[in-house]
Amino acid sequence: MTTAATRHSDRRISPVFLGILAVTAVTGWATWTGFAERSGVAVFLFVTAAWIVSLCLHEYAHARTALHSGDISVGAKGYLTLNPMKYTHALLSIVLPVVFVIMGGIGLPGGAVFIERGRIRGRRRHSLISAAGPLTNVLFAIVCTAPFWLDALDGVPAGFRFALAFLALLQVTAAILNFLPVPGLDGYGVIEPWLSHGVRRQVEPFAPFGLLFVFALLWVPSVNGAFFDVVDSLLGALGIHEFDTYCGYELFRFWRGEDGFCAVSP
């Protein structure tokens, strides 16, 4: 019933998103074949474009779940078109997550779609809307890690394997961090409907700073080390060695020069 109120044009896939998909496909091909003169540039473009695709799907999951939960306004706002330019905070949604990847190799989606919570009834629905985004990162991580835990990497070029391993790391870190019960992150959104009104009012002023607080905390060496120990353990259980993610990150940061340890033959 809710989808009937959404026009077909409101759900049409945006040319912007299709363009990002095309960049992902072309640079993925260039990474696989070694077509690019500098493999690091191809890896950077492939990982960045694929990461933005995952950000779009993350926010689409929020919007789509909200639509089926009662907020029929998301269609008119353009949230169902997968167009990142339609998000309420383009800086937080696209620019900052890419900066986080460049600076620290951390996948952390920002805030994006504005949900009219007053249209939605039931605490479970509110929680599900918040959980839908990071669950998309979990699904994306499964897709990226599948070739590793299925032992399907025979004949796969090293550069592409490294890029895929790094992309998997970004999805795993995004899922873990977004599920943290920190105001401003999806994990807090999952539990917020179950908190008392007084607690929610006290926490609300801190929500705009939750994302930056988590990122700043990860710059503390002991916290960063413990966090990546957990990430590396999860990836290791899925068949991804630290060497693969390390080289993926090194190739991604092509401007630092080529690391002979991770050299990729054309």
UniProtKB/TrEMBL annotation:
GO terms for molecular function: peptidase activity. It is found in: Cell membrane. It is a multi-pass membrane protein. Its main location: membrane. Keywords: Cell membrane, Hydrolase, Membrane, Metal-binding, Metalloprotease, Protease, Transmembrane, Transmembrane helix, Zinc. Its cofactor is Zn(2+). InterPro entries: Metallopeptidase_M50B, Rip2-like. The chain crosses the membrane at residues 16-35, 90-115, 127-150, 162-185, 206-228. One of its GO terms (biological process) is proteolysis. PANTHER family: ZINC METALLOPROTEASE MJ0611-RELATED, ZINC METALLOPROTEASE YWHC-RELATED. Belongs to the peptidase M50B family. This is Site-2 protease family protein.
